[in-house]
Amino acid sequence: MADDPGGPVPRTPREEVRRRLLSAAVRAFAEHGYADSRLEDIAHAAGFTKGAVYSNFGGKRDLFGAVLRERSDAEIDTLLARIGESADPADAVADTVRGVARRITEDPERGRLGLEFAARATRDAQTRDVVGRMRRAQREAVAEAVSRFAARGVPLGADPGLTALILHCLTNGLSMEHLADPGSVDTETIERALGAVIAALASVPPPDREEPQ
Amino acid sequence: MADDPGGPVPRTPREEVRRRLLSAAVRAFAEHGYADSRLEDIAHAAGFTKGAVYSNFGGKRDLFGAVLRERSDAEIDTLLARIGESADPADAVADTVRGVARRITEDPERGRLGLEFAARATRDAQTRDVVGRMRRAQREAVAEAVSRFAARGVPLGADPGLTALILHCLTNGLSMEHLADPGSVDTETIERALGAVIAALASVPPPDREEPQ
DNA sequence: AGGTTAGCATACCCATGGGTATTGGATACT
DNA sequence: AGTATCCAATACCCATGGGTATGCTAACCT
């Protein structure tokens, strides 16, 4: 059964091999961490073997580096794309907050990978360089968005750069807290936390229990 | 030289053996991470061999668990102790902020360990339980401190629990950011970020460039 | 078609380090 | 003192998995 087959099986394009390996690596590193991810598992998850990995990457470290750079670029692109779509200030902020909160709770892979990156950045200079660049770019994107709101007349309790740092770090901190203690840090709580800080920084009095006015 | 010695070398008390191993393990896990820490290195750093480790702990996982619990208790004690010493509200806040900022930049071991704990909590239920408990206790301690300020008449833009969550997560986020990008997140920046958020949440106008009054 | 190359599969190597079994000497007990 | 016990040192085991060398076949060349 399934005996001889008609001729040669077509070969997977190198580009796709690389993409599938990278994608499998992202899942593996996020789920098991760098050390506990096995190259053979990653390769099989992508439908190949270790040979494919060493044919497309220099080794485990290099594969991790490729994952890091790929995600870094993706993150920055997402951020930059989001800046454009701003509507009414209040609504835009509320929507963004909701989106951020949902991504934290519904896409744990992202947070896990971020933690893995951060942990390795602590010890490896190469990783630190890339992660540092990514973080700076993210903060700058946030700062840019904040500046636009400021230009529209929203008062700020701090300059855009500091405001961006605050929002960025608060978001990361909330993400970490959710991962460590999902039960007491849910989507709604994250929304409230971000909303409260933004409201306070924008010198907008906290919502008076019901809709204002 | 150093030839025969007078008789038996006294044996190190078991309590001290355990303490020294634990302390060496803290340093190792913080510096190299769990996976890249070798039991033999830890043992030698403490002045013993692997035998001492397996005599005092169940194995590598158990040693990590012991480190986690020990640090968890220490963190909670520190937090609780700090609550007592509040003087003038404004000064107390400024002092606390300065202390937190300095600890982040001057004691990287703490942040690194926190990251390691968080990363493992993501995948291991046991670790997640302990880390979750620790985090909740920390937030409650902060909430308690916030409540005291609120009782003294400091207005709050959010309830103490949410305020504590915000401050706690912002602190952790800033710590992570400092580790990943020490150059652009220094002590002063951390102080400003924390100060700005506290000022905003307490509905206190931001410092007017120079001393107020 | 025959030959060459490119690229993944397969088989193998071996350093690493967690875990275990055993030993040896100090402490406690009688 | 003699004996039992405790506890860390030592020696050893071996599963693991990153890395490498080789094989094999599809795609490319001419």
TrEMBL record, chains A, B:
Keyword list, A-Z: DNA-binding, Repressor, Transcription, Transcription regulation
Transcription as UniProt keyword: yes
Lipoprotein in keyword set: no
Pfam families: TetR_C_6, TetR_N
PROSITE patterns, A to Z: HTH_TETR_2
Domain HTH tetR-type: 15-75
DNA-binding region: 38-57
SUPFAM superfamilies reported for this sequence: Homeodomain-like (SSF46689), Tetracyclin repressor-like, C-terminal domain (SSF48498)
InterPro entries in UniProt: BetI_C (IPR039538), Homeodomain-like_sf (IPR009057), HTH-type_TetR-like_transc_reg (IPR050109), HTH_TetR (IPR001647), Tet_transcr_reg_TetR-rel_C_sf (IPR036271)
Protein name (record): TetR family transcriptional regulator
The organism of origin for this protein: Streptomonospora nanhaiensis
